[in-house]
Request: fold
Amino acid sequence: MLNASFRLDPAFTIAPVSRRTFGSFVEHMGRCVYTGIYEPSHPTADADGFRQDVLALTRELGVSVVRYPGGNFVSGYRWEDGIGPVADRPVRRDLAWHSLETNEVGIEEFMRWAGKAGVEVMYALNLGTRGVSEALDVQEYLNHPDRTRLAELRRANGADKPYGITMFCLGNELDGPWQTGHKTAHEYGRLAAETARALRAAEPWLELIAVGSSSSSMPTFASWESEVLELTYDQVDYISAHAYYEPFDGDIASFLASAVDMDHFVNSVVATADSVGAKLKSAKRLKISFDEWNVWYQKRFQATQETEWQVAPPVIEDVYNVADAVVVGSLLISLLRHSDRVTAACQAQLVNVIAPIRTEPGGPAWRQTIFHPFAITSRLAKGDVLRVEPASPLYATDRYGDVPVVDAVATHDPESGDVTVFVVNRSQDSAASLVVPLAGFDRGLQVAETWTLHDDDLEAVNTAAEPERVVPHALGDVTVSDGELRATLAPVSWSAIRLTAAG
Ligand code: AHR
Reply:
């Protein structure tokens, strides 16, 4: 048995929990939209063609904000193809995913879906093949109240009131040579600055996200951020970050420590952004929108790329196992830990495409293993994020050196008094005994609910035939006594423990 410990004190806060940390992503890619959120012939479809089984799971997942409509897709997208009578909408090639886009779902449909799901929309602009003028047009269509040509067009299309989008992504992954309209940092930075300036001339309150590196392993990582931010610093609020993790050559020990890389990535982006701020003598501090993150088995994808032009072909429909879910839980711990700078994050994606929700066309929808840590963290992380310094044994990894076996974060809701600990045990062979002194809390605390995700079979998955093979269970052996929380964490497990005021 390993021993791990950390102190909890309500005085040591990092930042308030940002609800936008629990964002997701719907891209016109594979079966995320068509036969994912939208399938008019499905038995659960509502009058608008949306699958109500998927809507119910989206609400249960606790998603706050959804990035739309891409991803790589957006860099060749013409937003006006997706408005007005559906019969008049063109079918187009989607060069990003080599498929056909029917445009049956566009702004009107997606905004209706978002209303039903109860989520905010983070709208991504095409700065790949398009520029300032088209960004202004879609902003006018989405947000201008009335009298102008595009506001009246929206009203004629059935949306009397403006949609009031606040967050706009100024493009997607334009540092990547795979991106349609790929740019140098200078080309992109100038375009993003001018687009931002123009959008803000109409709506100064917008929250704008400049494109950061598409991964920290890009050769241009950090110099891209630096050059882009020197050109955009005053015009934007966020710089984006994207990261996907997978095991390499069966190295589960390193895979389980993926959050170490995410921590390092966030710290590096913060350092780069702050150095630009210092150079510009600006007191402003940029935030990070971690608007694509997840486990993604990219190696499998590279081996199976489609070549036919199809509508909504199945693409990167990864089936997630127990180890993947533990990693997703630990990535959420990392995101929460950085809540002072990471105030928006989108798990990529929502349905079918590397997603917590899976569907079969005409058939069931179910929760993948990674659904559970997301849903529980979104539901229980409330109030302030507390600073936690776990004292834990280390283990050796090939990719990240020596890393702590146990990692954790906690939240404290001053209103209800609830304290929730989110903790991961990355050891593959030892349980961990956790002791958490609660000295700083003057109200007595008792255990309210506990959840753990663990299975002796790390490769266990949920499927249409067995959708509840992997589900969270109550964590046995959790006590609060003599001012200490004590718990035993199984090997390769993610757990959440909510404490509430006693009596
Ligand atoms: O989420 C899948 C793809 O990953 C997105 O389209 C792109 O932005 C990223 O490379």
Observations:
- The first helix runs from residue 52 to 61.
- The chain is about 25% helix and 25% strand.
- The CA atoms of residues 76 and 215 lie 21 Å apart.
